[in-house]
Amino acid sequence: MNVKPAPLLEVTGLNVHFGGTGFIPGLRTPPLRAVNDVSLAVMPGETLGLVGESGSGKSTLGRAILRLGELTSGEIVFDGTDMARATVGDLNRLRRQSAMIFQDPYGALNPRMRVGDAIAEVLRVHRKVPSSRIGSRIAELLNLVGLDAGYANSRPLDLSGGQCQRIGIARALAVEPKLIVADECVAALDVSIQGQILNLLMDLREQIGMAIIFIAHDLAIVRRLCDRVAVMYLGRIVETGPTEEVFTEPRHPYTASLLRAIPDIDPDRGLPENPLAGEPPSPIALPCGCAFHPRCPNALPDCSTGEPPRLGRDGPHRAACILPPGEIRI
Ligand SMILES: Nc1ncnc2c1ncn2[C@@H]1O[C@H](COP(=O)(O)OP(=O)(O)O)[C@@H](O)[C@H]1O
Ligand SMILES: [Mg+2]
Fold first, then answer.
1. Ligand 2 centre from 52 Cα, in Å?
2. Of 14, 98, 148, 223, which is the most buried if we count CB atoms within 10 A?
3. Terminal-residue alpha carbon distance, the chain
4. DSSP string, 7-39
5. What does the radius of gyration of the chain's CA atoms come to, in whole angstroms?
6. CA nearest ligand 1 atom 20, residue
7. What residue's CA is closest to ligand 1, atom 4?
8. Pocket test for ligand 1, best of 17, 18, 217 (most atoms within 8 A of CB)
9. pLDDT (tens digit, 9 = 90+) per residue, 138-181?
């Protein structure tokens, strides 16, 4: 009998709202909807790319999934447990099985702490190895990320940005995670170093088999690295599907606009952080209907009224747009 493998992570109807609880006399201030009714799933060992302009809610979603940030409502089932309603014990398990890699490799490390101590801290907190094995495990982890064991004695300020990011990855791997959320983890690095770190992540994924949510505004990197991609606009996922399909046959005008913004001359070039003309509307005052309609070249009268279109449920490639796929012209 063929049993469909269970997702490692299944997020359903997740909302993260900021503010909006304060009252101006006579006027209720609405919340900022940073993550708005998001549902997604990640299979064990899978790499999901999360893309969208700056401010679309990618980091907020990533942090909420790992319970490193607040959430307003929704379900986050990780390895069978709803972490949105987790007990302290459940959260400890989540901490032992997941990790985040941040954009700023220096900011993520304590500048006064030696690299070895920073890794040892993680090993101790999560009781990953007996005390007698901590030294050798640090050496193993450093080797895994391509650094000599001698780096254990250095401090972050002695290191380059790329070396620092390798340490960030070593710390993440110290928990032996089933899921890593990498938030713009190469955006601050030089292009040549970016390539090295991405190759490292791909090698580690092969070796260790962890799932990765790879947050990036750079579509070229996502195309190279990710099995599937989810495109966010103003807190919502507007399109999701297998990476190649989404890149070659986008079904949401927003995705199509993002792709068009990649310069033709050099297909490997990244995407600027705000590639589209005009500003997205404020997530405090979202437009009626589809939130993309004021910027959408294909918008129909129906797009500006009622509820935003839903992502749909059938098939791996889905978009929240009322236009048939063939009718998107960007
Ligand atoms: N702690 C916070 N308090 C209030 N608003 C926030 C907070 N964090 C993020 N936001 C807002 O939420 C929206 C999404 O932000 P973010 O998740 O950082 O987007 P992205 O990572 O895609 O650039 C933005 O409008 C941002 O200003
Ligand atoms: Mg971000």
1. 10
2. 98
3. 46
4. PSEEEEEEEEEES---EETTEEPPPEEEEEEEE
5. 21
6. 55
7. 18
8. 18
9. 999 999 999 999 999 999 999 999 999 999 999 999 998 999 99
Per-residue pLDDT at 139? 97
Distance CA 185, CA 97 (A): 19
Residues 6 or more apart whose Cβ sits within 8 Å of residue 313: none
Q: Which helix (H) or strand (E) holds 74?
A: strand 73-78
Which H/E stretch holds residue 207? helix 191-208
pLDDT at residue 272, as a whole number: 57
For residues 229, 101, 145, 45, the Cα torsion angle rounded to the nearest 10 degrees is -40
Q: Tell whether ligand 1 has an atom less than 6 A from the beta carbon of residue 62.
A: no
18-57 confidence digits (pLDDT tens)? 987 655 666 677 899 999 999 999 999 999 999 999 899 9
Establish whether residue 59 lines the binding site of ligand 1, counting it when its CB lies within 6 angstroms of any ligand atom. yes
Distance 269 CA to ligand 2 centre (A): 20
CA distance 185 to 182: 6
The response to whether residue 106 sits with its C-beta less than 6 Å from ligand 1 reads no
Query: What ligand 1 atom has the least distance to the C-alpha of 184?
Result: 21
34 in contact with ligand 1, CB cutoff 6 A: yes
HSE value, Cβ hemisphere, 13 Å, CA-based, for 263:
7
Low-confidence ranges of the chain (pLDDT < 50): 265, 267
What number of residues does the chain have? 330
DSSP for residue 105: T
Query: Does ligand 1 lie within 6 Å of residue 122's CB atom?
Result: no
DSSP helix/strand/coil, 48: strand
pLDDT at 275: 62
Residue nearest to atom 27 of ligand 1 (CA): 55
Question: What is the C-alpha separation between 215 and 232, in angstroms, rounded?
Answer: 11
Give CATH superfamily name and number for 9-327: P-loop containing nucleotide triphosphate hydrolases (3.40.50.300)
pLDDT at residue 312 in the model: 78
The answer to whether 317 and 245 are in contact (CB under 8 A) is yes
> 232, 220 in Cβ contact below 8 A?
no
